[in-house]
Amino acid sequence: MRQNRNRVRLQKRRKMFLMQQKRKRRRRRQQIFMRGTAAAMLLFAFCISIRFIHMAKDRPIVEGSTQEPVTTEVSTTETSTTESSGTGNVKETLLTGRGDDTTTGSVKNMDLKSDDKSNDFSDAVFVGDSRTEGFVLQTGIQTTAYVHKGLTVASAYTAKVIHQDDEDRSVMEALARTRYNRVYLMFGINETGWISNDIFISDYKQIIDDIKAQNPSAKIFIQSVLPVSKAVSDSGGYVRNDKIAEYNKRLEQLAADEGATFVNVQEAVSTDGVLPDDAATDGIHLNKKYCEKWLTYLEEHTLDK
Known about the structure:
two-stranded antiparallel ribbon
């Protein structure tokens, strides 16, 4: 009898031991599963954050103006060069770069001149986003403009938005194939959502360095980023006047470092770093009256440079 009782006890103990081991294995599997799930979620979150950073760098924050692009052809005066390309009439199409005789020769040692006061910008190229597009459209200045809504210092190299010589080119590719004496740059409003100010300045510097390499004699004007209205700045979005002010300080220093000219055009259209309510219906893109103020400022501060 005693042996039977002992045997029963041993069987119970063994059964309890086996149950404990089973529970331990189950808990271990659950822990492994939970750890694996947590690791997978962390990896997924990391991938999403990297993707967000990449998209934030390339995504236009300001979608663009309401103006429709036009294709008004602008002809400069007779062009002379010290190189073998000879003389000729340079024809560019406003905004899109379309033209039936776009010059593709070297841009070095160009000497484009005009005696017509209304053509003082005919030897220039304006490069920028939808705000520059609106400026050229509403002032009607005769110039060459490589612009596109949402353009950034990064997409100026990658987005094929300029149609030139029957090919779609990026802004920087088109610029390399264009004759000009001066170039007016305005970037920054679409980049206010970027994660780093240093990336913006680094990419901007690359544009300047490439322009200097392509056309060493060209005068480079870095225009300040225009502010937005108080309502837009306070709306909680990426576009904020304090960030724009930071960019403008960095751009002024960049111009000094690179031997370019910083043109503080915001002085002409803003008050205390804020765009007035009557300057733009959307608080961002200037109306005709303020575009003309912008033009007057450029005439007074850059045409004698």
